[in-house]
């Protein structure tokens, strides 16, 4: 960890972007910051060694978690656990009381998780950006028959539960549906951004991401993820799409 945006860092940025279906250009712009759960208003290529980034690294070292200078969900959870153990309000906000409990001066910046913003900055509508982020969140969750149907929050998801989770994030579905119900759902034919392939026993999606159209499917999860660059035959499937998308 040297705080320098060199060739190695750029290579890892590109790898992260490809994994999250962003343009793999090595530029940490708004879309990449959003995927990292950090809000940004302008593209960045170099780390300025900001005070808050340094403070987050200090915090992460003291909490004995991975050090990346980003106050993401993992850091927030670790902070809340620490606060609970030390009788503090477990809100995930690192203020004076938490800094003191960590053994530091209270005169340090207040740190908290920042929600990702934007969504349309990668050339996709906000609803599609939300769908992609949701798909990324559960991409490696295990296949569980019936998962995602009792509640959108689940330890695992089946094919229609996975698709329902993504469509719910896009704001086009209120509750999970079984695969057979998607055979008549929405509008017929392929969509501009999302296409649904459904029959009575299985379903999958294709989503137009900034890096191209990708299949989102629980069948034969490649490398443990629902995302797959390879398409599959649509024979035997009803082809639908969310109206307007």
UniProtKB/TrEMBL annotation:
Residues 2-36, 54-102 form the Peptidoglycan binding-like domain. InterPro entries: LD-transpeptidase_YkuD-like (IPR052905), Papain-like_cys_pep_sf (IPR038765), Peptidoglycan-bd-like (IPR002477), PGBD-like_sf (IPR036365), PGBDSf (IPR036366). PANTHER family: L,D-TRANSPEPTIDASE HI_1667-RELATED, L,D-TRANSPEPTIDASE YCBB-RELATED. This is Unannotated protein. It comes from freshwater metagenome. The lineage of its organism: unclassified sequences, metagenomes, ecological metagenomes.
């Amino acid at each position: 960890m040297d705080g320098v945006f060199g060739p190695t860092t750029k290579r890892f940025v590109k790898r992260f972007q490809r994994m999250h279906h962003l343009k793999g250009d090595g530029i940490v712009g708004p879309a990449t910051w959003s995927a990292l759960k950090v809000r940004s208003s302008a593209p960045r290529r170099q780390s300025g060694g900001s005070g808050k980034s340094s403070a987050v690294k200090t915090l992460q070292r003291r909490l004995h978690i991975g050090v990346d200078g980003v106050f993401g969900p993992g850091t927030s959870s670790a902070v809340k656990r620490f606060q609970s153990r030390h009788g503090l309000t477990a809100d995930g906000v690192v203020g004076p009381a938490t800094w003191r409990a960590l053994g530091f001066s209270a005169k340090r910046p207040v740190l908290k998780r920042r929600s990702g913003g934007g969504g349309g900055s990668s050339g996709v509508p906000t609803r599609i950006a939300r769908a992609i982020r949701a798909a990324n969140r559960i991409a490696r969750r295990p296949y569980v028959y019936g998962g995602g149907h009792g509640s959108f929050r689940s330890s695992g998801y089946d094919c229609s539960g996975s698709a329902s989770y993504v469509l719910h994030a896009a704001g086009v579905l209120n509750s999970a549906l079984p695969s057979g119900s998607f055979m008549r759902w929405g509008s017929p034919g392929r969509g501009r951004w999302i296409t649904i392939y459904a029959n009575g026993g299985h379903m999958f999606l294709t989503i137009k991401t900034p890096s191209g159209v990708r299949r989102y499917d629980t069948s034969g999860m490649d490398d443990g993820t629902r995302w797959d660059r390879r398409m599959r035959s649509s024979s035997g499937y009803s082809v639908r799409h969310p109206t307007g998308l």
